[in-house]
Structures are given as C-alpha cells and as structure tokens.
C-alpha cells in the first residue's frame, strides 16, 4: 500500500479515543463498535466512510484513554490514512500497529470536507485533487510502512516469523 485515495472527512481538535470507540460498545464485537465510530461528532461517518477515505483533523487527534479500539475502529472501517496537526502519542502508535497510516499535517485547515485526496505516506506527499494543491510532509519511515502494508504489527510479525520456519 503506497498511495491512498479517497474523500476527506474533516474533524477539529482533541478528537478523543472515546469518540472513536464509544465506551458503550466496548463489550460488543469490534465490528459493531466500529459502526459507532465518531457518531457523536458526525452521525453519518461510520455508515458513509468508504475504503481509502482520509480523516483530516487538528491538534491532538486520538487523545484520551489508551484504548487500542480507537485505532482498530478506523482499521475496520478501512480508513486509508489520518492527517492531523498532531496526534496523541499512544493513539499514533496504536494506529500504526493496526496498519492505519498517520501523517503530521500542519496545513490541515486547507482541506475541506469532501475534497478528494491522494496520500503517499512513503513519499510524504498529499495532493488535493479537488483544488490541485500539493503538500509535502514527513514520510512514514520505510520499516513502519512495511508493517502498515502487511496489515499492522501482528500480521507483520507473523509474516516475518513465518519466513524462517519450515512448513
């Protein structure tokens, strides 16, 4: 997975893990929990997000409790990438571990909801296909991108550990 293409979903600052994985659904199956992702901010999000769509947000995305289900919800909904001014540290690592690319994007305010985006996490490029404007950000390091491409930490480890073993 190198290039992600999809519609921009805009959110503000301090989108916390309780909004991404509402506590009411934590004991439900993960797929059910994901269907309630961000519903208190945008009730249409989980029902309408398409594979490859991109979340664009402000400061401290993923702040709050360290629940890994917040990142898992985005993986299950097949969000292509998250672009934010900044991320909560634990959420950022959890997202990468679940195979969801996250890029620090200071120009997030230049993207409107519904804009068509093309994101290349390896090159660190973001193209707004709606406006024609391009951006350069810090890319995701190659070793982390390999993990993301494999589907996250666990699939990556299974792939790596399986290579050295006889069948």
The number of E-state strands comes to 7
Low-confidence stretches: none
The name of the CATH topology is Aconitase, domain 4
Classified by CATH, the class is: Alpha Beta
Number of helices: 7
For the biggest β-sheet, the strand order reads 4-3-2-1-5-6-7
Mean pLDDT: 94
CATH-level-2 architecture = Alpha-Beta Barrel
Shape: globular
Structural class: alpha/beta
The N- to C-terminal Cα distance equals 28 Å
Largest sheet: 7 strands, mixed
How do the helices and strands follow one another from N- to C-terminus? EHHHEHEHEEEEHH
| Helix-residue proportion | 25-40%
CATH superfamily: Aconitase, domain 4
- Rg calculated over all Cα atoms: 16 Å
Number of domains: 1
What percentage of the residues does DSSP assign to strands (E)?
15-25%
Structural notes for this entry:
The chain is of the alpha/beta class. It has one domain: Aconitase, domain 4 (Alpha-Beta Barrel). It is built from seven helices and seven strands, in the order βαααβαβαββββαα. Strands 4-3-2-1-5-6-7 form a seven-stranded mixed beta sheet. The two termini are 28 Å apart. The mean pLDDT is 94.
Write the layout of secondary structure elements.
Blueprint: E1 4-10, H1 17-20, H2 30-34, H3 45-48, E2 54-57, H4 69-76, E3 81-84, H5 89-97, E4 102-104, E5 116-120, E6 125-128, E7 134-136, H6 142-149, H7 153-163
Parallel strand pairs: 1-2, 2-3, 3-4
Antiparallel strand pairs: 1-5, 5-6, 6-7
């Amino acid at each position: 997975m190198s290039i992600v293409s999809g519609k921009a979903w805009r959110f503000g600052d301090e989108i916390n893990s309780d909004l991404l994985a509402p506590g009411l659904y934590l004991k439900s199956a993960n797929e059910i929990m994901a269907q309630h992702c961000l519903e208190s901010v945008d009730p249409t999000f989980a029902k309408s997000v398409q594979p490859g769509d991109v979340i664009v947000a402000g400061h401290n995305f993923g702040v709050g409790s360290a629940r890994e289900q917040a990142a898992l919800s985005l993986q299950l909904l097949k969000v292509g990438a998250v672009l934010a001014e900044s991320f909560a540290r634990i959420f950022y690592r959890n997202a990468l571990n679940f195979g969801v690319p996250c890029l620090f994007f200071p120009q997030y305010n230049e993207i409107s909801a519904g804009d068509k985006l093309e994101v290349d996490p390896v090159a660190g490029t973001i193209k707004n296909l709606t406006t024609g404007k391009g951006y350069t950000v810090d890319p995701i390091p190659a070793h982390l991108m390999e993990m993301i491409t494999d589907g996250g930490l666990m699939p990556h480890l299974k792939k790596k550990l399986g290579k050295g073993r006889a069948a």
